[in-house]
Amino acid sequence: MPIAAKRPPALPILDRQHLRLVVTGTAPRLVRALTDQALHLWRAPRAVRPDVRLVATELVTNVLQHTPRSEGRLDVFDVALDLLASSAVRVLVFDMSSDMPICRTPAPGAEGSRGLLVVRGLARDWGAFPLPSGGKAVWADVPLAVEAPRDGTDPRMVARVLGAVRDL
Ligand SMILES: Nc1ncnc2c1ncn2[C@@H]1O[C@H](COP(=O)(O)OP(=O)(O)O)[C@@H](O)[C@H]1O
Ligand SMILES: [Mg+2]
């Protein structure tokens, strides 16, 4: 089932870094560079930087994998990173598809369908909402302070492993 539309809470934003990307294979690398620069600029604790990197990578990879491309021209999409006064980074990814993400429970051993589970595990809150232009935005608020795991499992450990694999 696609998730229900949910707008991010209207929290004070201290700074925004953004990038317009072409829907192509280099986008995840470029968004990681943007993320690293923003986290450096904001002096974010090193321990949480991989979490923001991974959330941004998963959301951007989903644009490449799950949104249709136009014939004969380059499709572009926008990514924004907002520094929230509540000590979190909001990752926003805007795409041109009106289809909402689907949060699946992957079969044991399945290779895919874990990206949004990781996002859900690392983010304080997340969601997606339609844009007046016809597309949607998917967003996730990742805490900048190390927070205790909410349910016995440690999604940060999963994130470390996935992040390391992606960087290979
Ligand atoms: N930006 C998006 N636009 C449309 N559908 C999406 C988007 N992101 C995710 N989805 C849907 O949600 C599903 C789950 O995404 P995810 O958990 O990242 O797993 P995976 O990408 O491995 O399929 C996808 O298979 C796709 O159907
Ligand atoms: Mg995915």
UniProtKB/TrEMBL annotation:
Sample GO molecular function, one term:
ATP binding
Is Ribosomal protein included in the keywords of this UniProt record? Answer: no
User: Residues in domain Histidine kinase/HSP90-like ATPase?
Assistant: 30-126
Origin superkingdom? Bacteria
Q: Where are the transmembrane segments?
A: none
Q: Which UniProt keywords apply?
A: ATP-binding, Kinase, Nucleotide-binding, Serine/threonine-protein kinase, Transferase
Q: Which PANTHER family match?
A: ANTI-SIGMA-F FACTOR RSBW, ANTI-SIGMA-F FACTOR RSBW-RELATED
- Name by which UniProt lists this protein: ATP-binding protein
